[in-house]
Design goal:
This protein has 402 residues and is α+β, with helices and mostly antiparallel strands. 30% of the residues lie in helices and 24% in strands. Strands 1, 2, 7, 8, 9, 10 and 20 form a seven-stranded mixed β-sheet that branches. α1 (16-27) packs parallel to α5. It is elongated, with a radius of gyration of 25 Å. The two termini are 30 Å apart. The mean pLDDT is 95.
């Protein structure tokens, strides 16, 4: 006979949001059980930030999140900020360091963050059951919920779905959260991979063959006008690097991206300076002082560059040449073939429609006792610790009421 466990709060998902919510609810005296189909908790935390977990961002503000309703994130973020999570990390004696753009990482490794969450859950009396796959959810006549898993059945007053998105299927990503939402009549917005590298069309793959590992500081823009200033990285599959990952959240199939290859310079001014001081030198060699030499050699094979430059020296360029070359390098366009998909994406764009959920409690408006937090919701942070902060903030907000 299947064992039936009765608990006040059942949380599906032992990730960042689920464990945070569990600890907060447990401290309120609620009997909390967390279930997860994986072998260990916090699997995504463990591999994040190169194994050091970029656990938050000091600059986390509503404008750093993509959501169909941009106001939805404000309440939770204001009630539990990056400073609040930093205080928790410090209280547990975890050493950490700052990187550029407000990012915070563990000095040691990501296990430290998982240990913080598990310790808090332990102190709060939370039960954790792993290797538990959800097979079915039922809402009972008395407004409680019954959840059947691969080995047990659970009976709870409050059901919290913190099952994450579809990223990194090798770690056990599952659409169960979306299925539960749809089962109870909630709208789920289309999902797609975000913060993900681009793949290239065959002709571009050929062009850039041999550039793998080259990184360039650029300003990358989407067709919608959003732009990010960070590095791009050529890989054997296509384009990656922070600026590419960032812009991927705003890119749609068939669109081009525009890359300013020289964001620190105005090429017209630079060439005019070269004309004064280095007029006899070749344009190609001088461009290689601003951009990686191998990359310049690839660009030189492009029709536009070949027509203008060939083997010209700087003093052979006319005003039209300079204008065309400047426009080309400041507005270099490339049309990705696609993305690497959920296999390598850091987060899922889309998810449970925030119009269906209270921004204060994360309870489904039309289904009392059912809650959705973290990545399963249609909230996607920028690269750099913002998505973890969303998990902490939404987890706390929910944990205070379930």
């Amino acid at each position: 006979m299947t064992q039936v466990i009765t608990t006040d709060v059942l949380i599906i998902g032992a990730g960042a949001a689920g464990l945070m919510c569990a600890a907060i609810a447990g401290y309120r005296g609620r009997k909390v059980t967390v279930i997860d189909m994986g072998k260990k908790p916090g699997r995504k935390i463990l591999i994040s930030g190169g194994g050091r977990c970029n656990f938050t961002n000091q600059n986390a503000q509503p404008q750093h999140f993509i959501c169909q309703n941009p106001h939805f994130v404000k309440s939770a973020l204001s009630r539990y900020s990056a400073d609040d999570f930093i205080e928790l990390v410090e209280r547990h004696g975890i050493d950490y360091h700052h990187k550029t753009l407000g990012q915070l990482f563990c000095d040691d490794n990501a296990q430290d963050i998982v240990d913080v969450l598990l310790t808090e859950c332990d102190w709060a009396g939370v039960s954790l059951n792993l290797r538990s796959e959800v097979l079915g959810v039922v809402k009972n006549d008395d407004q409680t919920y019954s959840v059947k898993t691969s080995d047990k059945s659970y009976h709870c007053q409050s059901l919290v779905v913190a099952s994450g998105g579809l990223t990194l299927p090798k770690l056990g990503a599952s659409p169960i959260g979306y299925k539960i939402a749809e089962q109870f009549g909630l709208n789920v917005l289309p999902t797609t991979a975000a913060l993900v590298p681009f793949t290239l069309h065959d002709h571009d793959k050929k062009r850039f063959d041999g550039l793998s590992g080259i990184s360039i500081d650029c300003n990358v823009s989407s067709e919608s006008g959003t732009s990010f200033r960070e590095n791009i990285l050529f890989t054997h599959r296509g384009l990656s690097g922070p600026a590419i990952l960032q812009i991927s959240s705003f890119w749609r199939a068939g669109q081009a991206i525009t890359i300013n290859l020289l964001p620190e310079h105005n090429l017209v001014d630079v060439i005019n300076d070269w004309r004064e001081h280095q007029a006899q030198k070749s344009v190609k060699n001088l461009l290689a002082t601003l951009l990686p030499k191998r990359f310049v050699e690839v660009l030189m094979k492009d029709e536009i560059c070949t027509a203008i430059i060939s083997d010209k020296s700087v003093n052979q360029l006319n005003h039209s040449d300079i204008s065309v070359l400047s426009n080309y390098l400041h507005h270099w366009q490339i049309k990705p073939n696609g993305t690497e998909g959920f296999r390598t994406a850091e987060v899922t764009l889309g998810g449970v429609d925030t119009d269906e959920i209270s921004s204060k409690t994360f309870e489904a408006k039309q289904c009392a006792g059912l809650y959705f937090i973290g990545e399963v919701v249609d909230v996607t942070g920028f690269l750099g610790g913002y998505n973890f902060q969303w998990c902490w903030s939404s987890g706390v907000a929910c944990g205070q009421v379930v």
